[in-house]
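Anyone up for a design puzzle?
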């Protein structure tokens, strides 16, 4: 289900059918929440929460298939010819894999480190708070979906960087607004979304939200370089997981220390990306 859905969603994205892509994003994010609440309420417990992902993916796939089946056909009957063009695309696929892996690492692997270094109780508390913080990443995800097909090599550098700056502005407004809400009303947000049992982790939410917000900005810059097929993207893609791992091994005495390691890693990778892209330079020229 997931593979089929992903290809069809990316086809819609590549064709710049952003209304359908946005609706799929809402359907996929909201469906997981609705199905999970319903199935857990029916008594399916953890299985219900996990099975909700399958149901949501299937539902999203049905909509994606309805919107693409006339013009996009997935077939295994075509013979694959490994020519120069295909090899270039496979290499580009390697860049995409490295970049998306690095992004995933920056906003999810903190939970795995916590599970390794701390007790199940603390890991459970941390995971619950981290789930709330990740709302920032997913709520800004549609921006990167629009950015990727809008940035092209055919455009001038000025046009591409103007689009990038607009995307960063949207991230600042949308993601920054959620970050500020989580920062100012941590207790109310936690109590409303996952219950009073997680109140012990109130102090973690502002820091985790900052970490996720930085990861969202890094994600936009990664997408920008991906759209331009810049091989230099390998540098921050490799630095991100290596640096986060080294910092966490050295400094993991408390939950706050692990968050700080990932905040610092995100910040360093962000600076590297800004140096590579230098989004404001072209706009200063007449």
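Challenge accepted. My sequence:
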């Amino acid at each position: 289900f997931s593979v089929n859905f992903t290809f069809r969603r990316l086809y819609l994205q590549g064709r710049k059918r952003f209304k359908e892509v946005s609706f799929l994003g809402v359907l996929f994010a909201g469906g997981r929440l609705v199905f999970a609440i319903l199935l857990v309420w029916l008594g399916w417990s953890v299985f219900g929460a996990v099975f909700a992902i399958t149901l949501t993916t299937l539902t999203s796939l049905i909509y994606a298939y309805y919107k693409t089946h006339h013009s996009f056909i997935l077939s295994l009957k075509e013979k694959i010819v490994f020519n120069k063009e295909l090899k270039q695309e496979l290499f580009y696929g390697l860049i995409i894999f490295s970049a998306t892996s690095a992004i995933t690492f920056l906003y999810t692997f903190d939970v795995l480190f916590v599970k390794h270094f701390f007790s199940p109780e603390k890991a459970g508390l941390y995971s619950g708070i981290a789930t709330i913080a990740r709302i920032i990443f997913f709520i800004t995800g549609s921006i990167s979906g629009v950015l990727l097909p809008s940035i092209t090599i055919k455009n001038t550098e000025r046009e591409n960087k103007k689009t990038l700056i607009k995307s960063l502005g949207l991230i600042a407004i949308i993601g920054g607004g959620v970050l500020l809400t989580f920062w100012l009303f941590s207790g109310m947000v936690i109590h409303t979304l996952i219950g009073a049992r997680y109140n012990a982790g109130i102090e973690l939410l502002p820091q985790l939200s900052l970490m996720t917000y930085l990861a969202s900005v890094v994600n936009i810059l990664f997408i920008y370089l991906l759209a331009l097929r810049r091989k230099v993207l390998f540098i921050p893609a490799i630095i991100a997981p290596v640096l986060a791992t080294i910092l966490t091994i050295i400094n993991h005495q408390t939950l706050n220390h692990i968050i700080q390691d990932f905040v610092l890693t995100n910040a360093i990778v962000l600076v590297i990306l800004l140096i590579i892209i230098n989004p404001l330079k072209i706009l200063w020229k007449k």
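A detail worth pointing out: The chain has 13 helices and no strands.
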